[in-house]
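Researcher: Predict the fold of beta-glucosidase.
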Amino acid sequence: MRRTALLASAALLTGLLPWATARAADDPPPTPVDRFEGEVPFASQPAEGIFTWGSDADDPPALRLAARADAPEGGKVLGGSYDISGYGGFTHDFAAGEPAHDWSAHEGVRLWWDGDDSGRKIAFEIKDGGANGEASELWTASFTDDFTGWKQIRIPFTDFAYRTDYQPVGGIDHVLGLKEMWGYAVTLPVGVKGDFAMDGVELYGRADQSLRASVTTDAVVHPVREGATARVKVVLSTTGSAPVEEPVSVHYETSGGTAEPGRDYTPVSGTLTFPAGSASGTARTVAVPTRRDKAAEPAETVPLKLTVTGAKAPAETPQVVIDAHGLPYLDPKLPVRKRVADLLSRMDLAEKAGQMTQAERGAVGAGGDIAAYGLGSLLSGGGSVPTPNTPEAWARMIDGFQLRARATRFQIPLVYGVDAVHGHNNLAGATIMPHNIGIGASRDPQLAEDTGSVTAAEVRATGIPWDFAPCLCVTRDERWGRSYESFGEDPALVESMETMIQGLQGRADGRDLKRDDKVLATAKHFVGDGGTAYGSSTTGTYTIDQGVTTVTRQQLADIHLAPYRTAVRRGIGTVMPSYSSLDITGDGRGAVKMHARGDMINGELKGRMGFDGFVVSDWNAIDQLPGDYAAHVRTAVNAGVDMMMVPYGYKDFAGALVDEVEAGRVSERRIDDAVSRVLTEKFALGLFEHPYADTSGAAAIGSPAHRAVARKAAAESQVLLKNSGNVLPLRKSQKVYVAGSNADDLGNQTGGWTLTWQGSSGNVTSGTTILQGLRRAGGDVTYSKDASAPTGGYDVGVVVVGETPYAEGVGDVGNGHDLELSAADKAAVDRVCAAMKCAVLIVSGRPQLIGDRLPGIDALVASWLPGTEGDGVADVLYGARPFTGQLPVTWPRSGAQLPINVGDASYDPQFPYGWGLTTRTAVPKGGAATLRALAVAAATAERAHAGRTGRELVTRARLLVQEKADGHLTEAVAKPFADADHLLLTGRYGKAVEKLAEAYRAA
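Model: Structure tokens for beta-glucosidase follow.
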């Protein structure tokens, strides 16, 4: 039945239903939305229909239209079953090709629900405004299944709140208009198997003015200096900006709070009136005078209670806050340690627990819990962004959260954190750098620092002072889904790229953290996350991520701890432990989760290394510890974790921590140490003086200057593995045939952690694809993604293949991923390379197994994940910049070789660690005698600490070896060649050339 016919029959249907709820005489008849008799199909946009959704393949519920004798309306109901681990539910979207529906005449929506008294909440969402049901504003309410059998659930439209954790489009008007409705959605309970049945969704009742008019205040919190007058703006808003038809009155009264009336402020009360005909946006002001005295005091609150008639009242009571004043910790002239000591001495246990607690922005909604629990920190997980996702919206959001913190006794500012792991990757339009694996390939410490500087500037300009980067993992197995987050497999390479810390934070003494273009950095994941054994993970379907790293103490020190020693020397502000477990051979403890290893966090990191920043847990990581929740909390805190990332469990954590301290299982001394560390960084960041966003640098976000750095990084990250016949660089005069899945896909070339946690294919943000870069370079380019277009008449082919985005253990090999090219990519390579000279670019986060096709490929490039600036890739392809990159990891011949790393006793890869042909200059002339002379000169440079000269000499020797060995790499060549690059990075230039001479003799 068409919806127009269904709506027309509403009165008739209501009269036929024996259980129809009585209605007031002046109420309009109910308007059916869904009867579930088959009039609405199972379908999705753009057609009208009911469809399911969920966070993964198992989470969407199973739906059916079921005949039931007890159906409240008609003969059928909508029934289904569910078993949801993430999120899941179903939606009824109205047809996008038809006009939106007008629900403004009604009081609310009601439905029949078959309850089983589970006590769980069912979320019910309606869709308002926008282009269609999937591009609208989402408004949410809920009801509790605390009954048995059929019950009619009534949800007045006044109960619906704008969703703050997710919106599908940019903000439309944030007003529930009801005149352009596109359907509804139901979110089912998580973590328990269940069945449900519902029937008879319909609109009921008569709308009153409170549905069309609301009263708000300009802010919920109004901080004011002692003695000044707070001015609270009270604003009338209406749907569609129509004037109110009836008068609206607002009675106000100062009452309650921690401030003393008559001493701290002058009490006020009265009534504001908005007459009939008042326009939307009309405002009145309530002035609350505060009084000055000579005493130093914490902040005090003055609630302004509002009683509204004729419109919807504000969701929260606004508060005037008289700022804390006169206390030593507020004096910026005092040393930080004295400010910390003073503040700490004034805090109670609950306030200290709050400072150790970090919640997700989506969990705190409008932010009331920030003050209620004295939260110390918020974060945005991957893809957790404001609506719209703009720099201005980020700054407004974070300023709003900081404003909430002003309502606490000591007004301790929040420190907001985000995973900006290759640029400000949560922000649409930001400059996206190559992932760390590409930065490692550049072998350019200055470039690493420059990329960190750009990232810091763009992050801080949106109000965020803390970045969960860089990852200092040493990747030892390319089957790991986080391989691309590492600078490489050699700890010496990782250490050399830690200049990024200075790019993010500035000078090692922390003096630059107050700047508007620097952020607090995080070394992660301490320690050994890159060394987990394949098959050791027990997290879901992961195969290697979050698994077990088994090492001797010497291996632990040399490989995995070494980058953290460097980070501490560079002044790193925070450290994040790994999800993984550490098993140290011979210590008798077996595999222990890193969040529980006090010997590593307290003993190694804070003790022997002297780390004086704070340790923050990973996302819900304490939930992986053994025992009950109280054991999770005390184990992690006692092990040395100072702040707990408990995104949605912040109330439970704060309460459990207080209980553990009061029970004597966590010492107050330990709590004071943790809170002191957190407060020290907040003072260092200047947040007490400047808690709000400094957006003066926002205009530079995604600017040409920033993108120039990313373009250079993309170019320097390209590693030329093979170049028979000097196919590369291309010439502008050549006709070039471009193919492959990753040639024209910005999402694929930016990879995971881009706009969302996992990333996605397609045009996800602003940038230039590799194909676009080739065209912008002025080349004569023809493109056929699958190489199905005719291949005749071209001089050279460029086939861009590789991976699609993933992140963390989702990308583990064996968890739906492998190291093989897709069938379509293989076919494209075969077609193009059979028809012409060809260059194959592999866009991926790790090596791909290409050995069976290598003989038919003229040029092979490891492009890694170059970020948004495909122009940088085109620069090296066309010779505007030379190829200079070197492999940051070993490129295996087969999966059977994994794991394979520089220094292994048996080492016979496809391409060794450090390999990278160049198009910079002609290869130096000479042979064994030249290498002997270079070795002598390099040893001299080493003794003289002439690093630049030493590196240049080793590079000349490397190019000689590559010239001779290209095309017939054997184990006898590969092993000393890779060892030489490690020696170079550790400053042993003479030994490096000796190893290269050994490789030369074997070639």
